[in-house]
Write a structure and sequence with these properties.
Structural class: alpha+beta
Helix content: 10-25%
Number of strands: 19
Order of helices and strands: EEEEEEEEEEEEEEEEEHHEE
Length: about 290
């Protein structure tokens, strides 16, 4: 995208949190230069010259402004790019564009009627496209729970979208318990933490969906039998459950450091009997 209309493509990213200080969910941009080069990443500021951020009233609301996922689109039909943002809470906001890469400081939450628009799960991941082919902009999203969801626009083309509640386009896939053996060969659909891209991949005039996911392949440690693995896994689950309970009690006001240390020790012990390979895949759904 050319965010500031200078003829060069720019790269925009959200974030989980700011490394220093208490602010979270800042947006960073790599401004494009000639020859396909980019400047160093800088924080994207609003028209008040302060960093763009979704405001919250207390730390209890912080899931509303972390893990931000921005995308640019002319949301209100005024010919200027706006910033539509997904959050960890599964909600969405829009920063209205003022042109040339500038945005109003205060975002507005996306609504469905009088309610906040939210996906089922966490990690709102907006992809905006005319999904149903009626000439207006709809909103698709992945989810922490997996699958793909769609909020249909019932408004007029070229106007600010009027969105319905999310409905399922692709159902969430299998879930895996900690310690469950998982091989690449048995994966037949996206797992959790899905991310979405929509395009006509095969050139048939229909929009297809690309879905990225997050999954951990799990196998028994070398030299273990299935019986040994099962025994060690059950022992670990009991110890892990006890350590988790102690951690919860610590967070409720009891001495915390010892409980956290014990929890980390128990959690790491799983590497003694199983091998894990955190990875992810991209799945293609061709539209019929």
């Amino acid at each position: 995208m050319d965010l500031n209309n200078d003829g060069h493509r720019d790269i925009l990213s959200g974030s989980y949190s700011r490394m220093q200080g208490s602010m979270a969910g800042l947006f960073q941009v790599l401004w494009g230069e000639a020859g396909g080069k980019f400047k160093e990443a800088t924080v994207l500021n609003g028209t008040d010259k302060e960093p763009l951020i979704i405001p919250i009233k207390s730390k209890s609301e912080q899931i509303e402004n972390i893990c931000t996922r921005p995308t640019t689109v002319d949301w209100n039909g005024d010919g200027k790019l706006d910033l539509v943002v997904g959050t960890f809470a599964g909600s969405f906001y829009v920063f209205t564009g003022e042109g040339n890469g500038k945005f109003t400081p205060k975002p507005e939450p996306l609504m469905t009627g009088k309610k906040r628009l939210k996906i089922k799960g966490h990690h709102g991941d907006p992809f905006i496209v005319d999904w149903d082919g009626d000439g207006d902009l709809d909103l698709l999203s992945g989810s922490s729970e997996g699958g793909v969801q769609w909020a249909e626009n019932t408004g007029a083309p070229g106007k600010t979208p009027v969105l319905k509640e999310f409905e399922t386009v692709i159902k969430p896939g299998r879930t895996f318990e900690t310690g469950q053996l998982v091989s690449e060969q048995e994966l037949t659909e996206p797992a959790s933490s899905t991310r979405v891209w929509v395009d006509d991949v095969n050139g048939d005039g229909k929009l297809d969906i690309l879905v990225g996911d997050d999954v951990t392949l799990v196998s028994m440690a070398k030299g273990l039998s299935e019986k040994e693995f099962g025994r060690k896994l059950e022992e670990w689950k009991k110890a892990y459950s006890a350590a988790s309970k102690a951690m919860s009690e610590a967070n409720a006001g009891r001495p915390e450091e010892a409980a956290r240390k014990r929890f980390n020790e128990i959690y790491q012990k799983r590497t003694e009997f199983m091998d894990e390979d955190p990875t992810g895949y991209v799945w293609l759904y061709r539209r019929k």
